[in-house]
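__Protein archive entry__

___
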Amino acid sequence: MNDISDRLNRPDLDAYWMPFTANRQFKADPRLLVAAKGMYYRTEDGREVMDGASGLWCVNAGHGRDEIASAVGQQLAALDYAPSFQMGHPLAFDFATALAKLAPAGLDRIFFTGSGSESVDTALKIALAYHRARGDGARTRLIGREKGYHGVGFGGISVGGLVNNRRAFLTLPGAEHLGHTHDLARNAFSRGLPAHGAERADDLERLVALHGAETIAAVIVEPVAGSAGVLPPPVGYLERLRELCSKHGILLIFDEVITGFGRLGAPFAAQFFGVTPDIMTTAKGVTNGAFPMGAVFASRAVHDALMQGPDGAIELFHGYTYSGHPAACAAGLATLEIYRREGLLTRAAELSPGFEAAVHGLREAPHVIDIRNLGLMAAVELSPRDGAPGVRGYETFVRCLQAGALVRYTGDTIALSPPLIASAEELERLVAILGGVLADVT
């Protein structure tokens, strides 16, 4: 296309207030995607761009899956919407059963939501309701972790630990934070799990000593912190955190919105690490990004504690208009079948050694101060420019797009999370594009 036709075909950009975007900067020089198939997007000017970020960590099975589109279309024609309050439809029960079969043992009670943010707020409310139902209503504190991201609901930003997500907003009283595990001095350029830092889980003992275990309802962590820049946990950290939560009667919540559905080479990070939480939040890959949906997995112990009270009483006063939406369930069931048929939930285990080698091959590139990876997740951390933090990361993101690859950036960290359908050659080419850009970024 030429510049004139681009302008003629471009939509009016004024009305749409874009999320997590520098709106004025974007609208001065917009980046528009118009189609996608497999590993690739197509831009408005007809260029093919490799998706190195699985959309937003969600398109695990690649774009344009006909099976999902067909399932959604058929469901919309048959039953476009059904209320989930005091009513049901078969697909919601079928999908919950299918998810429960994938889950770690015992996490087989499923509550549907519309997003990861809704999943987190749901999990936090379930945790509070669980303790209240057991006569332990003083347990109201919720503990997150520095550098954690748990969506943008008021519960999620309260336990989240990214300051820009919290700075302008009120947060819940009683929310506390464990220290983060990012240790550049001891763990830089770790391959897989960093060796140092398991003892940082003991920060929970500090909060127990300060507030009393009897006031703490739950701890929520991402098994691998994603939005902070792919921070794998130190060896033994999650095991220690599980031990401490069990010791003090505190529920452990894993936020698996990013790590769920094959990102690490197992259905869920809980199975990859061999550590089972009490509650697990998911979204994104649950429908391959094709339809908004989330799912909270609760243990039977948590679920059954709430199944009390008089006959006919609502056990949990919580839910959403779109909980278990028929088309979302259809998309989810079709997605799970693709994962099963193509072995995608474990494929990252096969691809990760080559991906790791390629990414760590960027160690000597200009400005690189750390490289981290686990499964099909990786991050390349760059030194910030003096007085301009984040600018180098943003320019790298833009130049990668121009060079043919969509990556994620957070501050001065470039994150890669390619679809699980990627070939070894495509992964190498993705990293090579990033390497070529880094060679030229000042």
Notes: The two ends are 30 Å apart (CA to CA). The chain has a mean pLDDT of 96.
